[in-house]
Amino acid sequence: MRRLLLRALPLLVAVLAFLAFLPALDGAFLNWDDDRNFLWNTGYRGLGPAQLQWMFTATWMGHYIPLTWLTLGLNYTLGGMTPWGYHLGNLLIHAANAAVVFFVARHLLGVATTSRLAGASGEAGYGKSADATTVAVSLGAGAAALLWAVHPLRVESVAWITERRDVLCGFFYLLAVLTYLQGATRERTLGGRWLAASLLAFAAALASKAMAMTLPLTLLVLDVYPLRRLRLGWPALIREKLGHFALAAVGALVASWAVTRGAGWTSYHDYGIGARLAMTGYSFWFYPWKLVWPENLSPLYELPARIGLLDPRFAWPTLGLVAVTILLVLGRRRVPGALAAWLQSMIVLAPVSGIAHAGHQLAHDRYSYLSGLGFAVLAGAGMTWVVEQRARGRVTRWVFGTTVAAVAMALVGLGAGSWVHSRVWRDSETLWRAAVTSDPTCALCYQKLGEVLHAAGLPGAAEAELARAVALRPDRPTAHN
Asked: Which residues is 470 bridged to in the sheet?
């Protein structure tokens, strides 16, 4: 019975991940890129030769995402312009991602736990509790996958139709990691079918969204910990990933080209080196903090008109980032997993941290979709340790029960938060009213709310919101218009 329950864990994780975002199925197309991507754009509607040509050549709104457009074209073929089908697609892919996170976490936690136990020389009972270790690792992987999957930071990626590219990229990114883990060993470099499968999945991730471009660096972090493959040497580890690095370079070049054709980069004249350092420090701190305290989530954390590195809003996060990084480096032998998760987050976020920048945002919740994976696995490692210690009789039943109850309550609370926040994304007016409540200084949020009210035939209410947008950012012509 226990084996059956353990085998059912990934399915349970997927079902719970789906249920947490169920209110999103009632959502409409939003005036936050959904209008331009789907209501005004006819290029993706279908899977005929003309549509396929458009999908593989378009840089619509600054993105080259042919694989994402293929899935959206399939949505149109099956259900036309009914939003429900598009939302269902997002939820199903996210649920699948949650199951893959389980398998990735189980592999990483299994390697880390085995290494830790093997390194505890002379430890009583070592080698006699493989079954208990398997249970501990599986439960830890389940906790990690659920923490990642039902967290309110996932709502933007799952409940927003436009972010099909996020969940689809996440699916192939996770498959690229999982296939890499299946083939990577301490004794030899990766090759053969596992290398080919990882490269194929990575290429699919890049064709879904360019955010996956940093994967080779994440794989190197995993080589150090928990895989502990450094005995092979850095040249060998880098050489086995030359295909990954080549794909990453192509992905970065294509993404840059797409931005110049469909959007535009933020000028260094407007935001210089000091501002970019402040934006980067803020971004690297923002997502781990929101993971711990997911309050006042918004569709847009607006880029201020002026940014200074010494402004308190940016100075404190930057100082916190430096302090935590130093502490984790100093404690890398005791808590190597924490440093690995911290580095993985910064690696994933680097392309959208501020060094290169396009758009009106200072941060976006959706950028945590990949960057939060390491922290989830780290939390799963804590759960694995507690279960394993209980099996060895080193934790009392009361402490163990209290810990499990606390973890369960936290996961239920996060899932409930995602359920509530998913309802915010059901229509444009609800979304932007929540946004201006979350951040009363967001000019673009007031502008978007004004556009909604104007389209609803409420010119007086629309004028009031647009006036607020003009007062906050008088240099922008759109709210004036």
From this structure: none
* pTM of the full structure: 0.95
Alpha-carbon dihedral angle through residues 266, 344, 287, 379, given to the nearest 10 degrees: 170
The half-sphere exposure of 440 on its side-chain side, counting CA atoms within 13 A, is 0
AA letter at 326: I
Q: Give the pair of three-digit tokens for residue 116.
A: 């830790």
User: What pLDDT sits at residue 395?
Assistant: 85
Spatial separation of the C-alpha atoms in residues 109 and 10, rounded to whole Å: 15
Residue that is written with structure tokens 């295909």 in the block: 243
Residue 427 CB: number of other CB atoms within 10 A?
Answer: 16
Return d(Cα 464, Cα 460) in angstroms, integer.
Answer: 6
Q: Give CA angle at 372 (116, 300), nearest 5°.
A: 165
Return the CA Rg of the chain. 23
What is the DSSP code (8-state) at residue 122? Answer: T
The number of beta carbons lying within 10 Å of the beta carbon of residue 403 is: 17
DSSP run (H or E) holding 64: none
pLDDT, one tens digit per residue, over 334-360 is: 999 999 999 999 999 999 998 888 888
